[in-house]
C-alpha cells in the first residue's frame, strides 16, 4: 500500500476490504508522504520493519529486490489524487499489478500514458470505483444488459453530500483541505471526488456512453477554489437522456448516491445508503424489491454476497468485492485458477480513463457559452470509441466495462 | 363547473374537493363541450335542470340572469387547456370568482390579458396548483421562509410519471390524446402538464424566482408531437441553483412529485406519494420527520389538516384545501368573515401567469443554441419582477405567492 | 346523524365521508346530547331548521312523520359508545337503515338484541370499521381468500397510539375523558377503542375466527380505570396463531395500525399510516409492492379508488368507501340498482357483534388464571359459529364477513 | 477456531469479523467434527500445518504445549450448539479466553458450570450475540439507560424469518437439519436459535429483567420436532410489559429482527435489516432519525463505526465489534492497554447464561396450563438476581450487561 497512513480513513477501508475474505495479506507499505509518519504508521499497523518503507520509491526498489515469489502481488495506491499517476505508472512499468483510488489521475494526458503502460506491461489494473462492488449494482447491471428494462431512455444519477456546506477546509479538516485544493485534487472538486463515482455507476449499470453534456458547476462556499456542487444534463449515444447531480453542499445529506434508470418496459432504482434494496418497476405490474443473497438473482450478484438474505452487507463488503475480483484475476494470470465462469468484475484502467475524461469535459462545459459540449470518450490508445469495440483482451477478462 | 363531465377524472376530483368540507355545493354546470354530453353528465350528477347548461356561454348568461344571491359564488374551469382562457376571461369580466385548472392559459399574451381582467374586476381567482394544498408543503414553505434552512442554495424538484411511456394516445386513451395534442394542450407536453406543477411547488416552497434556465426537452415515443420528458438546469435570482426533472415516460413511476431544498443550515425533502412525511435534515443533528396534525407545526400546516396525527389525508384533501381557501376568501370579500389570522393561502392568477411563462421559456430554451435562456418573470401588467414587490393588495390577501 | 356536533372530530369525518362521492346529502340530525348544543351545531352545519332536532327521540319521531320519500335514507350514529345501542335499536325497529360507529354496543346482550332487530326489520346495518374500506385492505383480503398466501399460519396485527401516555383525561381532553370512563366506554379502554379495529382488520383480511385468546391488559397511567395497553396471544380455528397488540401509551406512535399475515407460500404486510403500499412477500421471489389504482388489482380494490395510481387516497376516502357501500346497498334494496357485480362490501351488524364479543373475552381472559380463554364467536341469534355458515342472505349481499 | 469449516456460513463470518480491524490473525483451528474435513478446511483456509488440528482436543493440547506468547489469544467456538459446552468448558479451564456462539450451552446446568469455570479461571468470555454490536443498538441502549425515554413501559421485540416455512431439513439443507434436531440444538428450535437473540437484544437495550412469561410455541411444518414459531407475553420486573415474537415460518421474511421500546416520554425503533437508522419518537416533537458516524451519538456508538456517515456498515462490522471488544479486553488484561474510557462492550458469559435460562423457561411455559411462568434469572453462582447487583468485577469491566 502506498499512502493510507493513520489519518486517512480510506486507507483503513482498503485494508479491511482487502483482508475481509482471507485472500490477501497486508505485507508492505509506504504509508505517508513524510518518512517519519510513514514508518510510524506502518509500525502501528504491524508491518514488518523490512517492508515498512519510508517512501514509495524505496518500496518499489525494495520489492523489486525480493525474489518473485516473495514480492507483493499488487500495490494499492491510496494517496491524494496528484500522487496517483507517478506511483501507479512506476509500479505498472515495473510489472506490478495495481489497485488505484479514483479519480485515477489528474488529466487525460496522464490517463493515456497510464493506459499505454498497462497495455504494454500486461498487468492487472483496478480503479476503486467501489460502488460497483455492491451486489445490487451488479444485479441492476445484469437486468439492464439483459434487456429487462427494454430500451434505456433516461438515467438519473445523483451523489449528494453535505460535509462541505461550511468552510471545513479552514477549520482543520485535512480531507477538506486537499479535496478543495486544485494542486492536490486537480481541475475539479465535487465533480472529481464524487461526480466521477456517479458517472462510473451510470456507465457500469447501463453501459451507455455520453455523447454531449451541459454542466453547471458552482462553488457556494466563499473562498472555495473548486466546485462544491454540479448539475449536468447528458445526452447519451443512441438517444438516451440523463441528469447527473453531485454536491458536497447539500446540507443534511450524508453519502446519498443513487441511480434510477428508465427503459421502455421498466424502471429501476438503487440507493447506496440502503444498499440491500433494488427496486424494479415494471410498466404494468407491481414494483419488485430485490435483495441480496437470494436465489432469484443473477450469478454475479449472488457471488458478491457472503451472507444469507437479510444479513446486510454494506460499504466495506462492496469494496472487498473489488479486491476479490483483483485477487481472482491475479490468480488466473498466475495460472492458479481457470478463467471463465464466475469471475468477479472490477473497474479497470479504461474506467479510470473514462472518469478522468468526464471530469475534464464537465469543467470544459461549465466554462463554455455553448449549450452542449462533446463528451465522447475515445480509448486513449487507439482513437476508437471504447464502448462496444470489445477487442481488448485485457478488458474482456478483467472488467466491468465491456 | 365548466367541463368535468363523466369521462374526466379531474372533474370528479374538483367536485369532491369542493364539497369535502361542507362549505360548497355543486349547483350549476356546463359539463362538456357537446350539448348532449353536457346535459347527460349534469343529470347523472344531480344538477337541477334549470342550471344544467348545454354550453359555458349559456351558463354565463343563465347565471347572470339570476338575482345576485342565487348566482353561483364561483365557477370551476376544468376543461382541456385551450378552453381555459375564453371561459375564465368571460366569467371574470362578468364579475364571477374563478377557480381554474392549470396550466392557466396557453401563452403569455392570454395570461397578461387575464391578469388585467382579474385586477380590473377585483374577483377572486385561483389556479389549482393543488399540491400546494398539502399540509407538509405549507410547513416546508414556512420553514424555508422563516429561515430554518439558512440561505437556500439548491432546489431539486421532480415530477416523474410513466403513463405515456407507450403510445397511449393511439390506443384510445382520451387523456393521452388531448394532452399530447398541441392544438389542445399548447406548446408543451410534459412540461406544461406536470413541469408547471413542479415549478409551482418549487416557487411555493422557496419563493425563489428563476433567472435563467437551460432546458432539454425530448419526445421519446415515436410520432409524439410534444415533449414527454424534460430536464432543466436553473439559476435562480440571488444565486441558488436548481434542477427540474419532469417526465411522462419514466416507466414504473406513478405520480412521483418530490422536492428537496438545501440551505446553508439544513435540507428538506417531501414526496407527494407519501405526503404525510416532511424530512428536515439539519447539518449536525438527526433528521426530523414532521407529520401532519401535530402541535409542533406552523399554523398554516395545522389549519390544512382535518384529522388527528396518524390519520392520513391525501390528494383530495390537499385539493380541498385550495377550495377551502377560495371559499374563505369569498366570504371575506362578502364581508361574512374578518380577514387576517388563519387564512388558507391558495395559488392565484399570478402563479398561473408565472407557470405559463415558465412553459414558454422552457420551450424557448430547448430550441436555443445558447446555454442559458433568460426566464425572469415580470408581472404581466406592470413590467416589474413580481417577487418581492408585495404591493398588490389582491396578492397580499389571497395568495401563496408573496 | 345522531351525535357528531362541533366538538367531535369523528362526526366531521362521517359527514365528509358520506358526501365525498356526491351520493349522499346531510339532511337531518340531532347532533348533541344537550338540546342547545344540538341545535347550535346543526345550524352551524347548515341543517334546515325543520330537521335540526334537539334529541334523537325527536328526530326519530320527526322523520317518521314525513312521507316515505322525504325521510332520511339512513341514520349515522356517532355518539359516545353507551348511546349506540338505544339509538341504533330504536331506528332499526322503526325500519331505518343505520350506520353505527364502533364498538357497536356495550355488551353481548345488547349485540344479540340488535342483531335480532336487524334480522327482523331487514334493514341495512353497517358498523364503521372504516379501515376495511382501504383499497389495499380489500386487495389483501382478496389475496388471502384466493389462496395467494397458501395456508395462513400466522397473523400479527397491531394498533399502537401514544396519545394517552399521559393523563390527558385530567387535562381537559374530552375524547380522553369519555374513552377512559367505564360508564361511557364500557368494560374496556384501548381494547374497545382500537383493539376492536385490529380484531376486525385481522378477520376482514383473513376470515379466521378466534378459538382461544390469552390477554394481558394493563393500565399504565396512574388513576386510569380502563386498560390503556393490551397484548394478546391468539389461537385461531384451524390452527393458525396470532398476536394482537394494541396500546394508547406507545409514546410517539400516532395511529400505527398494521397487519402482517404469513401463509405457507407468501406473507403480506400493510400499514395504515402509509396506506397506499401493500407488500406481498413470496417465499422465493422478490417482494412486490402493490399500490392502488392499478389494473393488476382485484375488482374490489379497483372499485375502492377514485384516482389514478400515485394520487394517494387516505383515511377519509376509506371511510367514504364504507358509506358508498351502504348507499349502493340501499339502492339495491330500493330496486334502483341490480345486485351483484361490483358491490362494495362493508362491515355489518355481525362484524359489530363479533367485535363486542372480542372485547368481552379479552377482559375475561385478562382476569383469568387460566392461560387460554375460549373466544369462539357464535352468531348471537342461532348459536352457530358464524364463520363459514354463509347462510344469512343479509350477509351474503351486504357484507365483508362471508 | 473450533468448528466453522467450509460448509458453515457462520464460521466465515467469525473469521471475517475477527480480522476486519487488523487486530486479530487466524492462526490455529480444528474446523470440523471429522478429522479429514477439519484438516482439509484448515488447509483451504491457509492454516499452517502445525496448527491445523484434527480435533478440538488435539488443538487444546497442541496450544497448551506452545510457549505462552505463541499460543492463541482466544478460541472461537462456532460448532453446532451441543458441542459448545465441552469445548468452551475445556478451554476455559485451561485458561484460554473464549468467544462462543449462541445459545451458549444446552441447559442451565451447563450454564452454571461454565459461569463457575469462567469466574474461577478469570478469563475473558464472550458470547456472540452479535446484534448488540451494531452502533445504533449501542445508541439505543445509551438513550434508554440515560433516561431519554423516561420510564420504560413496553418492549416489542421480534425476530422473524421464513427459511423454515417448508421442510428444508428433509431436502438436504444441513443448517436446517441440525437446527431442527433436538439432539444437536437442545430443547428449542426457533426460540433457541433466534428467540435468544431477541431476548438478548431487548435486555441489552433496556436492561430489563423478565419476571414472568407466557409462551405459545408451535411447530407448523409437519414432522418437525422443535418449535418453528413462538409468541410470548412478558412481564418485566418493575412493571414494564413486553411481547416477543420469533418465527422461522414467516414466509417472505429474511432476517427481520426489530425492537421497539416505549417509555413515558419517548419511543424508539430499530430494524436489523436497515441497521443504520434508529428512530427516536418523542411525545410532542418530530421523530428523529439517528444514523451512525455522526457527532451527535454517544461515545459507544461512535466507537462502533469505522466509516463516515452515509457509508453503511452492517452485519459483519457489527460482528467485528464484538471481536474488537474482546481483543481490547484481552489487551487490558495483558496490561498492554489502560482500562476505562472507550471500552467496547460485548456480551459475556452472564448474557449467555441468561439466554439459556430464557430458552428453558419459554419451553416450560409453553407446556404449562398456568398463564404465567416465573422467568426471573438468578445469577447461576450466587442466587442473586443479576440485574442491578453490579458487584461482579468481571461484568463491570467487560460487559454489556450492567
TrEMBL record, chains A, B, C, D:
<dbReference type="InterPro" id="IPR000683">
    <property type="entry name" value="Gfo/Idh/MocA-like_OxRdtase_N"/>
</dbReference>
<dbReference type="GO" id="GO:0000166">
    <property type="term" value="F:nucleotide binding"/>
</dbReference>
<dbReference type="InterPro" id="IPR055170">
    <property type="entry name" value="GFO_IDH_MocA-like_dom"/>
</dbReference>
<feature type="region of interest" description="Disordered">
    <location>
        <begin position="369"/>
        <end position="402"/>
    </location>
</feature>
<dbReference type="Pfam" id="PF22725">
    <property type="entry name" value="GFO_IDH_MocA_C3"/>
</dbReference>
<protein>
    <submittedName>
        <fullName>Gfo/Idh/MocA family oxidoreductase</fullName>
    </submittedName>
</protein>
<dbReference type="InterPro" id="IPR051317">
    <property type="entry name" value="Gfo/Idh/MocA_oxidoreduct"/>
</dbReference>
<dbReference type="Pfam" id="PF01408">
    <property type="entry name" value="GFO_IDH_MocA"/>
</dbReference>
<feature type="domain" description="Gfo/Idh/MocA-like oxidoreductase N-terminal">
    <location>
        <begin position="9"/>
        <end position="129"/>
    </location>
</feature>
<dbReference type="InterPro" id="IPR036291">
    <property type="entry name" value="NAD(P)-bd_dom_sf"/>
</dbReference>
<feature type="domain" description="GFO/IDH/MocA-like oxidoreductase">
    <location>
        <begin position="137"/>
        <end position="268"/>
    </location>
</feature>
